[in-house]
Design a protein that fits this description.
The chain is built from seven helices and 41 strands. The chain is mainly β.
């Protein structure tokens, strides 16, 4: 393998050197051919008078009128590129970029400017005809108008994948009906995973092995036009138009699960859960676009100014619905196995998902400012906005077996959802927003400044509440009703909020070397249909800036804040010091914990709150103490050497004694150094004298950064005792002994160095750089208490291997200036990438089980994957380019 790699590198080098030699010889031959003289071209002594006459000064030419544009300048690049990428799945190299093979007309630049003309114009085309190409143009008259145009593309490459699905219509993915019939008719095809047998897996493996590959790639296209115009010094009008388009194919996860209590435990007759993953990863077609328009003006006077803006945003999805066929079914069916019906889930023929709906948003804003004496200004902005969407609802289900006749006697009382009329055809959703910002800034003394600012946001979701008789569940295999929802109706809840921020800032320049700043902020949230109706957060921050001597700057800041929810609403679970995790006839002690008893269910749960563990807390609303501080030192005392170092630490601690996110910490360290063998003035003098040596024209740099993220999370393996689908939602139990803790630590180290040097007059320029990035994600899970004996899989902590990413990038570039207007260069890039991820290392498109490191194998005999992922790779790119300037 190493020998093959060495041969490939040699072939790249040979190709590059041959091409470079050809270009150089050709370019040198052309000017030399023009300068050669033959015998008949020798100077005649009699022609000396003519030569002397040519030396006489010419009469002054009449002054030519000024052109509309000044000097015309430009350049273009022609390149030849050789790309060699090695690896099982090397798509990481071109995840967000494009390196085409062969010849290309790569870059083009034009520029018009002159000190004698108020007009400016520029045009730039980069990476022409590549997937990440960009075109931009600017034309302006200084002080009068400015027009800007931009069109660029940003690709996102996932990988190639295998799939049984074929796109046969807008948003419709079909599977060969002959294959579907064969898979459904396979012996024991509807059995649970443990009794499935080998017939179905053998057929699926054969079909997947023969299935075609699909390229999973999307691309953002952006068209942007901006225009500003000033008819006089008081008025300014501006316009902005943007069109964003997303096209391509990307992976989309779908599916459900089945759980059976068949895993033996140490308690006779009591088992734990065995899960099976059911579903498929789909090649989702994407075709959507957004149009953003803004019109506005501003009128300015010496002491005040006012302006208005109108904005309109239109989102349109050309694939509003994703419909797909189930490779395992040609006939619809429901699940079986009361009371929870875990057998035979996900047996629909067709299913569909609603994609992002078409929606409109418009806003109108007014902004103004007024100047007062003592360097005081009052400024503010107010914005009103309204968003709407009214896309028709999809039907409850496409599973034709979900009718009343099939449910009677099995799940009595459940509504047949197939073909059932919806409570309303669409949401008719409306969201209204109000945003305001008012600030008073004043500098009453030359060394002191005050700012008082208020910001308010009001988002009112005016969409109606829609109540549904039931919703399909577990892969359209059964129906969930209010009975299964602890008596709460199946309905949506339009969430609204208001936020108020008040900030007071004080700045004091004690002297020329030392400055102080203090800031206080008070933030208030009011919410509807959320766990925390109201919360207050107070924060205080201090900063200093110290310059002990010329070229040295020391800065530091520290913030402390405390968010306090007025109350945290939860469902009325009760604490039981000794849970009965068995039955009334055969009780089993589960230790202390919380539970939902039949009496609580009968009394009713709280409408508008999620049916969750009452001791679980959401980190974006919970009580939180934040500490954020940083310090930086920058030294620039010499024209030859400058360096800096900075450090920052942020930690969030959440309310103790609860489950959920408990803490989060981030720290960053950054250091960099730059070195110039000759200082700036010496370099200017040397250049004026015709350049210097390679060492004198050099520039060195290096930087190192380290990022550290750490989180701590607490969860619980809960139990469900006595529940039955459409019979009763009962007895969710949360035993403390089944708690587990997870600590995640992510380290990212990045190191980069490089140097740039050139010969006298910058005839030859050499640029070398190297970068290394290394990331390690370490996850530790533990059980703080002995877990219950019947919960080894429900609550047992599992060790996870580390996830490792290492990426390097080495670049060498040499540019030779052949003439003032012609340069040739070569660039070599080497990028090795290594990844080890337990989640994807052993992933295959299909397997009876999928192996995930650190965990027990997952049962996946009826689960299909695209297997789109990145693996370790290395890339070699050699580029030869020719740049002509005019």
């Amino acid at each position: 393998m190493r020998l093959d790699q060495a041969n490939r590198i040699r072939s790249i080098v040979k190709f590059t050197m041959c091409l470079l030699a050809t270009i150089v010889l050709t370019l040198f031959a052309i000017p030399n051919a023009r300068s050669q003289q033959g015998p008949d071209e020798k100077i005649n002594p009699g022609d000396t008078n003519e030569l002397e006459a040519q030396k006489k000064p010419e009469p002054k030419k009449p002054t030519t009128p000024k052109r509309l544009f000044g000097d015309f300048k430009g350049s273009f690049d022609i390149a030849a590129q050789s790309v060699q990428v090695e690896g099982d799945r090397p798509g990481k190299f071109q995840e967000y970029r494009d390196y085409p093979q062969g010849f290309s007309f790569r870059n083009l630049r034009f520029k018009y400017e002159s000190a004698d003309s108020p007009y400016l114009m520029s045009f730039k085309a980069l990476e022409i005809r590549e997937r990440d190409q960009s075109y931009s143009a600017v034309i302006e008259k200084i002080g009068k108008f400015r027009t800007r145009f931009l069109w660029d593309q940003i690709p996102r490459y996932y990988d190639k994948g295998r799939t049984l699905h074929v796109l046969t219509g807008p948003g419709f993915l079909s599977v060969d009906p002959v294959l579907r019939a064969a898979l459904e008719a396979a012996p024991n095809a509807g059995n649970p995973a443990q009794t499935l047998g080998t017939a179905l897996p053998a057929l699926v493996s054969q079909a997947v092995g023969a299935s075609p590959t699909v390229t999973l790639r999307v691309r953002w296209d952006q068209l942007l036009v901006t225009q500003s115009y000033r008819p006089n010094k008081n008025w300014e009008f501006y316009f902005r138009a943007q069109h964003l388009r997303l096209n391509g194919t990307r992976p989309r996860d779908t599916g459900t699960f089945a759980r059976q209590n068949i895993f033996p435990t140490s308690i006779p007759g009591v088992n734990d859960g065995v899960w099976e993953s059911l579903g498929m990863e789909l090649p989702e077609p994407v075709n959507q676009h957004t149009t953003n328009l803004t019109f506005g003006f501003q009128y300015s006077r010496p002491k005040w100014r006012v302006g208005m803006d109108y904005s309109l945003s239109l989102f349109r999805n050309n694939v509003p619905t994703l419909t797909w066929e189930n490779p395992f079914r040609v006939t619809d069916a429901l699940s079986s196995g009361p009371p929870t019906f875990p057998i035979g889930r996900n047996r629909f023929v067709r299913a569909q998902l609603a994609e992002a709906p078409d929606n409109d948003y418009q806003s109108f804003s007014v902004h103004a400012s007024v100047d007062f004496p003592h360097d005081t200004q009052l400024r503010g902005e107010f914005t009103w906005g309204r968003g709407t969407q009214n896309v028709p609802f999809l039907p409850y289900t496409l599973n034709s077996a979900m009718i009343t006749a099939n449910l009677t006697g099995v799940l009595a009382g459940q509504p047949g959802l197939f073909g059932l009329a919806l409570p309303r055809p669409s949401l008719n959703g409306v969201v209204r927003t109000l945003n305001g910002d008012v600030a008073l800034a004043s500098k009453p003394w030359h060394d002191m400044r005050f700012v008082i600012e208020y910001r308010g946001d009001d988002m009112q979701n005016q969409s109606p509440i829609v109540t549904f008789p039931g919703l399909p569940l577990f892969g359209d295999s059964t129906v969930r009703t209010a009975i299964d929802n602890y008596g709460l109706a199946m309905e949506n809840f339009p969430t609204s909020y208001t936020r108020h921020d008040t900030t007071v800032t004080w700045q004091w320049d004690v002297n020329k070397k030392f400055g102080l700043e203090a800031e206080y902020n008070w933030e208030i949230w009011n919410r509807t249909f959320r766990d925390v109706p109201k919360s207050n957060e107070h924060s205080i921050e201090g900063k200093f800036d110290y310059k002990p001597r010329r070229g040295v700057s020391l800065k530091g800041d520290y913030l402390y804040s405390h968010r306090i929810p007025n109350t945290y609403l939860v469902q009325p679970l009760v604490f039981n010091p000794n849970l009965n995790i068995g039955s009334a006839a055969s009780p089993i002690s589960g230790g202390p914990g919380w539970e939902a008893t039949l009496a609580i269910v009968a009394a009713g749960f709280v409408r508008g709150l999620p049916n969750e563990f009452n001791m679980l807390r959401r980190f974006d609303e919970d009580d939180r103490i934040r500490k954020d501080g940083g310090i930086s030192l920058e030294v620039n005392r010499s024209e030859k050497l400058n360096y800096s170092i900075s450090w920052r630490y942020l930690r969030d601690d959440y309310a103790k004694g609860f489950w959920g996110l408990r803490y989060g910490a981030q720290s960053t360290l950054d250091a960099q150094v730059n070195y110039f063998p000759r200082g700036g003035k010496q370099d200017d003098d040397q250049m004026a004298a015709g350049g210097g040596s390679w060492l004198q024209n050099s520039f060195f740099y290096a930087n190192y950064s380290r990022e550290f993220d750490q989180t701590g999370y607490g969860g619980m393996g809960n139990l469900i005792n006595g529940a039955g689908t459409n019979v009763r939602a009962c007895c969710a139990q949360f035993p403390i002994n089944n708690s587990w803790d997870r600590a995640s630590k992510i380290n990212l180290d990045m190191f980069q160095f490089g140097f740039n040097t050139s010969s006298a007059g910058e005839k030859t320029v050499l640029d070398v750089s190297y970068g290394l990035g290394f990331a390690r994600d370490r996850t530790n899970t533990t059980n703080p208490f002995p877990i219950l004996p019947q919960s080894p899989r429900t609550a047992g902590a599992v060790p996870y291997p580390d996830v490792i990413n290492r990426q390097q990038e080495a670049n060498i570039s040499i540019t030779r200036q052949l003439r003032a207007d012609l340069a040739v260069g070569i660039n070599y890039r080497f990028e090795p990438y290594r990844v080890s991820d337990y989640y994807t290392n052993s992933l295959v498109p299909y397997g009876v089980t999928q192996v995930t490191g650190g965990s027990f194998n997952a049962n996946t005999p009826r689960d299909l994957f695209l297997d789109a992922r990145f693996t370790s790779m290395h890339a070699n790119v050699a580029t030869v380019f020719l740049r002509y300037s005019f």
